[in-house]
Automatic annotation (TrEMBL):
<dbReference type="GO" id="GO:0004497">
    <property type="term" value="F:monooxygenase activity"/>
</dbReference>
<dbReference type="GO" id="GO:0005789">
    <property type="term" value="C:endoplasmic reticulum membrane"/>
</dbReference>
<protein>
    <recommendedName>
        <fullName>Cytochrome P450</fullName>
    </recommendedName>
</protein>
<dbReference type="InterPro" id="IPR050476">
    <property type="entry name" value="Insect_CytP450_Detox"/>
</dbReference>
<keyword id="KW-0472">Membrane</keyword>
<comment type="function">
    <text>May be involved in the metabolism of insect hormones and in the breakdown of synthetic insecticides.</text>
</comment>
<dbReference type="InterPro" id="IPR001128">
    <property type="entry name" value="Cyt_P450"/>
</dbReference>
<keyword id="KW-0560">Oxidoreductase</keyword>
<dbReference type="GO" id="GO:0005506">
    <property type="term" value="F:iron ion binding"/>
</dbReference>
<dbReference type="GO" id="GO:0020037">
    <property type="term" value="F:heme binding"/>
</dbReference>
<comment type="similarity">
    <text>Belongs to the cytochrome P450 family.</text>
</comment>
<keyword id="KW-0492">Microsome</keyword>
<keyword id="KW-0349">Heme</keyword>
<keyword id="KW-0503">Monooxygenase</keyword>
<keyword id="KW-0408">Iron</keyword>
<keyword id="KW-0479">Metal-binding</keyword>
<feature type="binding site" description="axial binding residue">
    <location>
        <position position="127"/>
    </location>
    <ligand>
        <name>heme</name>
    </ligand>
</feature>
Length: 182
């Protein structure tokens, strides 16, 4: 969706993918897919705008004093972390509705507070499938972006509206794109 709506980003990603593969004698390998920084940026920006889940639940095993305050979260209290809202907070992500993979350059990430990007959670309860999922996304995107160009259609919404009945965040009514073979 975002690559179709942002053809300049789609083209830059295609160029960086092709350059990395050309530098590896035309071979698409795990190492090549994992080494393309702009691919990481595009995926992370997509996960920022469209995290797999809207929120995370945590339950502290001991009373927890919130640093810098007098507030205590009693043990066994359900704490809900609003991932979707947190990752669209303009304090951490200016103009949060804009799709901007450059938010995830190494330099930009260093300047952002920890725990403001949680598409897979964090710490010991982090999603166990994160690494496998990221590898699948990268290999899939490398394959698709090298072979096809994506465009919006008249049925492509200006803004993604999430299906309130879905367990994971997914677009209501599907996602319509035009795909052209390169």
């Amino acid at each position: 969706y975002e690559l179709a709506k942002n053809p300049d980003i789609q083209e830059r990603l295609r160029q960086e993918i092709n350059q990395a593969i050309d530098e590896n004698e035309g071979q698409v390998t795990y190492d090549v897919a994992m080494s393309i920084q702009y691919l990481d940026n595009v995926i992370n920006e997509t996960l920022r705008k469209y995290p797999p889940v809207e929120s995370l639940n945590r339950v502290p095993s001991v009373d927890y004093l919130i640093p810098g305050t007098k507030h205590v979260i009693p043990k066994r209290t359900l704490v809900q972390i609003p991932v979707h809202a947190l990752q669209r907070d303009p304090e951490h992500y200016p103009d949060p509705e804009r799709f901007d993979p450059d938010r995830f350059t190494v330099e930009q990430c260093k300047n952002r507070p920890a725990y403001t990007f949680l598409p897979f959670g964090e710490g010991p309860r982090m999603c166990i499938g994160m690494r496998f999922g990221m590898m699948q996304i990268k290999v899939g995107l490398v394959t698709l972006v090298r072979a096809f160009r994506f465009f919006p259609t008249v049925k492509t919404p200006e803004r993604v509206v999430f299906d309130p009945k879905s367990f994971i965040l997914s677009p209501a009514g599907g996602n319509y794109l035009r795909v052209e073979k390169l």
